[in-house]
What we know:
2 copies of one chain form a homodimer.
Chain A: E1 4-8, H1 13-24, E2 29-33, H2 46-50, H3 57-60, H4 65-72, E3 75-77, E4 80-86, E5 91-96, E6 101-106, E7 109-112, E8 116-118, E9 130-131, H5 136-149, E10 153-157, H6 161-172, E11 176-181, H7 192-204, E12 208-211, E13 215-220, E14 226-231, E15 235-237, E16 240-243, E17 247-249, H8 252-256, E18 267-268, E19 280-282, E20 287-290, E21 297-298, H9 303-317, E22 330-335, E23 338-344, H10 347-352, E24 357-365, E25 376-384, E26 390-397, H11 401-413, H12 418-423, H13 438-450
Parallel strand pairs in A: 1-2, 1-7, 2-3, 7-19, 9-16, 10-11, 10-16, 11-12, 18-20
Antiparallel strand pairs in A: 4-5, 5-6, 8-17, 13-14, 14-15, 20-21, 22-23, 23-26, 24-25, 25-26
Amino acid sequence: xxxxxxxxxxxxxxxxxxxxxxxxxxxxxxxxxxxxxxxxxxxxxxxxxxxxxxxxxxxxxxxxxxxxxxxxxxxxxxxxxxxxxxxxxxxxxxxxxxxxxxxxxxxxxxxxxxxxxxxxxxxxxxxxxxxxxxxxxxxxxxxxxxxxxxxxxxxxxxxxxxxxxxxxxxxxxxxxxxxxxxxxxxxxxxxxxxxxxxxxxxxxxxxxxxxxxxxxxxxxxxxxxxxxxxxxxxxxxxxxxxxxxxxxxxxxxxxxxxxxxxxxxxxxxxxxxxxxxxxxxxxxxxxxxxxxxxxxxxxxxxxxxxxxxxxxxxxxxxxxxxxxxxxxxxxxxxxxxxxxxxxxxxxxxxxxxxxxxxxxxxxxxxxxxxxxxxxxxxxxxxxxxxxxxxxxxxxxxxxxxxxxxxxxxxxxxxxxxxxxxxxxxxxxxxxxxxxxxxxxxxxxxxxxxxx
Amino acid sequence: xxxxxxxxxxxxxxxxxxxxxxxxxxxxxxxxxxxxxxxxxxxxxxxxxxxxxxxxxxxxxxxxxxxxxxxxxxxxxxxxxxxxxxxxxxxxxxxxxxxxxxxxxxxxxxxxxxxxxxxxxxxxxxxxxxxxxxxxxxxxxxxxxxxxxxxxxxxxxxxxxxxxxxxxxxxxxxxxxxxxxxxxxxxxxxxxxxxxxxxxxxxxxxxxxxxxxxxxxxxxxxxxxxxxxxxxxxxxxxxxxxxxxxxxxxxxxxxxxxxxxxxxxxxxxxxxxxxxxxxxxxxxxxxxxxxxxxxxxxxxxxxxxxxxxxxxxxxxxxxxxxxxxxxxxxxxxxxxxxxxxxxxxxxxxxxxxxxxxxxxxxxxxxxxxxxxxxxxxxxxxxxxxxxxxxxxxxxxxxxxxxxxxxxxxxxxxxxxxxxxxxxxxxxxxxxxxxxxxxxxxxxxxxxxxxx
Lengths: 451, 451
């Protein structure tokens, strides 16, 4: 059966969707458009490319366009910017950036994997020393600035995942790092317990954290660099500014096609990853999906979700019939010697979604406390006090936070309760795990306070 | 209500049972007998006490008898050896080792937590340089021998958990270590894939591994030490021998009371941890419990199970009514820079229990493969090919094996399938976890081969 599948966006969800479509229907003609020159690279690894831990650009690239095309039987067109979708004609208009011309392409099925973009902080405007980090191109520009300008002081605006990873990255290059944030604590997507843990870790690693309410002005260098930021809380001097105040779905393209979007701005897709227009699918950071705990749309701009949803969109676009059976928030961040992970609902989300949410926090040992060098693990469990059902968790420590969050993800998938957690059998050996895992210790504490 | 609860055995299950009984019924009179002078110490940490990583005996001890007694409101009698149970009279006979006399104690409820003992290798007999490691006393004797005799070469008979941990311990003290084992691979309780991983790790750490079939003779020193072991495979010279060929339930006491025992020799208990005689409970290494996957009795001589079953026995002996809701094998061992973990059924156990078992193995990355220093993780999933239900798993690598096994334990608890695993949301960040966890990668491979 003739089936031309066009995939727009080549970073994570796009290649996943295209590959899966090719495996599902080897007869399909699959074209992947990407506006930059790169596809399929490790975007989450950019902080470690900037600090040279990952030495070469080539190390980041999982597939070159040529390799991807040859191995997967997919036509790859980089430096092609898709400008418009015309659903009535099942057609897209594509700007070939190399040849400088506009081409029309018909599709049978279209998959939008246009990803996300940095939220812009308009107060800062365009200055040579002001950067965002959302692409390999961004990273290359930051590296170039570092190489030529040798900045000594850096200010990061925001304190989310990338902000904290970049605080480590810049610090490891010997720079003084200041974080300016509008919240009392870093890591807004986590519980305050985790935010305090993160703040403590930053402080131990000599990263200054300043909470501000308003930016009151700037001072500029002769080169038009912002060399001073004046806020209500402090004046901060720096050679380089990284703005990292969040990301949002990149959906400019879908506006022309009038695709339905949600409260976070992402394309609303059904369980098959189809948008509000048939034969148009979406996956990854550009869409919103249903949270299995609340059954409401939410935004999950993570590489893991991009892969999962990309595979589903690709399979369905190629004639398959598969659905997203479950999705809950699950994310982690590592910075310096700290690791923080979250799964499921936050306490506030649980409350606002009608759960009788309660939370319990403990600080436990990652190894037996009598074992020299044993580290601490903080566990916050969020549960419904009516039945003890686990709704979410925050876990932080030196290591082992993400894998423990994955244990809780597995528990949430099956609606396990605090009591169920205590029935579980966990493996124990002094060098790897404690006799009673902090996760179980937290469940026990929650159960006691819930009785 | 009058309730005298007597607990026999003070290592792990005993203190857990006694504490829980005291919390359940603060009016109960609780007496804990222990034949040695120590209670409540970290037996799993003994290898790290022997190599001085844990420097002092006192570091191992979680509760001294005095502290335990004072904090928990429990009468603790160390150096008391219980000699006989007379169920008809609800009475025990106790040898006070300090005063050298035999006393009678009546009980309302009795909890047996007599633990396990080393399986004896009779060929070796009693020699000054032949050791077992099953108690703090054993460890102290090994340390004394090391201090006074400065052994250069060590032979370990067996290749289970303690054998491998002690291979690391002795190596770290600068000794040459040889393992003599009757199996082709170490770690018999694991899949051959894990055994090969362990063998490779031993070899990289200069531990010689010799598989033998028969011991053909010994040579002795003037001090009656066994200085040479002659086997069909090789002749091995050493200054110190550690025999570590397994453990078995310590049930001599129960024989007099005619308590029912199982195929592994442990007391058979019901879900309330009651033995075949009412008012007599058992917990920990001395009993057999039901495996939730097979619903058959099995032997789980681990500290985690000791705690879990001890709490249940203690609560019920004190008038509560709680049951062991779930129990599956779950264990891990760390040696050198290797970590191996198992949960659920082995492939062979799954087959012999009537499952249409299949297994799939992968070697995946513990971090993104483009991240410098990313380690490998081996995952073997055992599942039923009829429905893809997960039955067990072996996981090994440099780290993260035990926590991943705990994820699978959580999945097994609710009878999740390979497909379910692929629906899970796991957290990802380059420094802690890969974009697609090896556990999911293995599930995907299993699902493909199962179609």
